[in-house]
Specification:
The protein is mainly β. 12% of the residues lie in helices and 46% in strands. Strands 3, 4, 6, 7, 9 and 11 form a 6-stranded antiparallel β-sheet that branches. The protein has a 5-stranded antiparallel β-sheet with strand order 1-2-10-5-8, with no helix packed on it.
Amino acid sequence: MNNYLVIRVPRRIAAVALIAAAAAVWIATPMQVRGDNVPADRGGHERAPLIAESLPDIPGKQLTAVLVNYGPGGKSGPHHHAGDVFAFVVSGAIRSESSATGPARVYHAGEGFFEPAGSKHLVSENASATEPAQLLAVFVADAHAQLTTPDSPTAR
């Protein structure tokens, strides 16, 4: 018996590749964020943070990146965030309105927007009723803060 698979890849390399693929699938599986997610009306939810790192040059602050998935027609209710947020549309199209950015606008894959601390996120939804959408949200906030807090629909 030799030490190669049919395609002649050494078993160690194949094992490492298999473990990496399993880790990628595990990371790509949606998970709830520990209470930081906004209750979704239809299909919008956050995943576990991709990264959460303290910022050594800003004591007490942390950078956290989270993927937010919206099913077709999915949306989140009005909410605000614990700090500054940069949002980047990974796939699909997201309709967003913030008290700091003006009227609702649709952002397509490859576009981004900024929400300064203290602003209210009034509209956050998938612009499509038939296709999913994904958003990367990068927060700079107090370490271990609850990143997202729901607001009442009338709190504008």
